[in-house]
Amino acid sequence: MHAGKNGEKVTVAGGAATAVPEQPVILFIEGDGTGPDIWRAAQPVLDAAVAKAYGGRRAIIWQEVLAGEKAFQATGSYLPEESLTTLREYRVAIKGPLTTPVGGGFRSLNVTLRQVLDLYACIRPVRYYEGVPSPLKEPWKIDMVVFRENTEDVYAGLEWPAHSPEAQRLIRFLNEELGCQVDPGAAIGIKPMTARCSKRLVRMALRYALERGRRSVTLMHKGNIMKYTEGAFQNWGYEVALEEFEDRVISEAEVASRYHWQVPEGKVVIKDRLADNLFQQVLLRPEEYDLIATPNLNGDYISDALAAQVGGLGMAPGANIGDECAIFEATHGSAPKYAGQDKVNPSSVILSGAMLLEFLGWHEAARLIHAAIPRTLKDGIATYDLARQLPGAREVSCSAFGQALVERM
Ligand code: NAD
Question: Which of 32, 106, 332 to mutate to test the pocket of ligand 1 (most atoms within 8 A of CB)?
Fold first, then answer.
């Protein structure tokens, strides 16, 4: 695959875009099922936002990368080596959902991409867009970003079924060598967590908070029960915050003891909450939470819970970011039953595109998209999923919703 006309590479280091040309090459993976529908609606919206914000001075040079069914049809492989090479070379991509067959077949391509490219942080901003039906009374109080560790914890895939030779061997070792009393018929799963992976995740969250003027980073963990994994995550998080960012970050304890709960100007607060408590807090006192940094499983749960609080996954954007690569993606699946019908809501991939624009530092273009969504919904224009919940709304197709956004920029 070749770079588009005049396109140049974005330089990515330490999980951030460090040099962005005016005409960057950005890769896209259409995705399976409804992926092509939402991508066809989204790309014109992203191009229009950039054109409107920068009057032709800047433009994205899109380049397709094959993955999933389209790749299989063209090359016989669901994730061709050439695609990985292109991703490693150009580093910034946006993708639609990829189908994972249930029960056997191949491993999830999404998980493979995250592991092969070491995309260690799953970033999910959660904010409310006026007009979106929400189960909360005051959903506008939610404006949070979840940083979920993407590479370890119980997602490491270290599991053995009950009565398997591996489980029995491990149980014998645990009982005989370490004095444990594990039931010999138990299934066994392992939860590895390291200082390196925990710290790099918290470091990325702190940098993001400082660059974007956010107020706090909350370490979400279950360290009262899992002391040496989740508890260590908390300790490692504080270590990064107070050793590497000591002049710009302050602990909640210090704000209370030395500053009477008044955060000193320009400082980001680092605090921690037990996972179960945080689920209550984000419902009861959402205005007190801003960025959340957390291990893999907690992050999975809290991201979807928060997305539901502001009106559902259909709108939620996401990104998987490592030191050298960033892939922005719709958080919903490929919804195959609607494939090719130009019907589903393209907002998730469009808002992921807005995150990509922010990653490039093109905040003006991202803001145009963030403003166009509530304007369009207020005008009563929505895809089927939201139209059926909005009294008096007119249901439009996926591509017409994209067009309506462009008209309201
Ligand atoms: P799904 O998100 O594809 O669909 C579930 C339901 O949600 C749909 O039937 C539809 O009613 C609704 N929905 C989803 N996207 C929507 C949109 N853009 N607009 C309006 N409504 C929407 O979940 P699923 O059916 O569990 O998964 C289908 C496939 O997608 C599976 O193969 C799964 O592995 C894969 N998947 C991929 C990703 C990814 O690529 N990141 C994420 C989740 C699931």
Answer: 332
Work out the number of other CB atoms within 10 angstroms of the CB of residue 285.
10
What's the rounded Cα separation, in Å, for the pair 87 and 96?
15
The CA distance from 280 to 141, in Å, is: 14
> Does residue 314 line the site of ligand 1, with CB under 6 A?
yes
- Name the residue of 334, 373, 386 to mutate for ligand 1: max ligand atoms within 8 A of Cβ: 334
30 C-beta closer than 6 A to ligand 1: no
Cβ of 110 closer than 6 Å to ligand 1, yes or no, is yes
Both tokens assigned to 202: 């918290």
Cβ–Cβ under 8 Å, residues 230 and 223: yes
Pairing of strands 268-274, 249-251: parallel
Q: Between 35-54 and 398-407, two packed helices, what is the crossing angle to 10 degrees?
A: 10
For the annotated catalytic residues, the residue numbers are: 155, 222, 276, 300
Residue 115 contacts residue 40 (beta carbons within 8 Å): no
Task: Report helix angle 35-54 to 363-378, nearest 10.
Answer: 120
Q: What angle do CA 352, 354, 359 make, to 5 degrees?
A: 95
Q: 49-98, pLDDT tens digit by residue?
A: 999 999 999 999 999 999 999 999 999 999 999 999 999 999 999 999 99
| Burial class for 370, CB neighbours closer than 10 Å (0-12, 13-18, 19+) | middle
CA of 106 to the centre of ligand 1 (A): 18
Asked whether the CA dihedral 252, 255, 257, 258 is positive or negative, the reply is positive
- Predicted TM-score (pTM) of the model is 0.93
Which tens digit of pLDDT belongs to each residue from 14-35?
A: 999 999 999 999 999 999 999 9
pLDDT at 3 over 50: no
Kindly state if the Cβ of 99 falls inside 6 Å of ligand 1. yes
| CA–CA dist 166, 260 (Å, integer) | 55
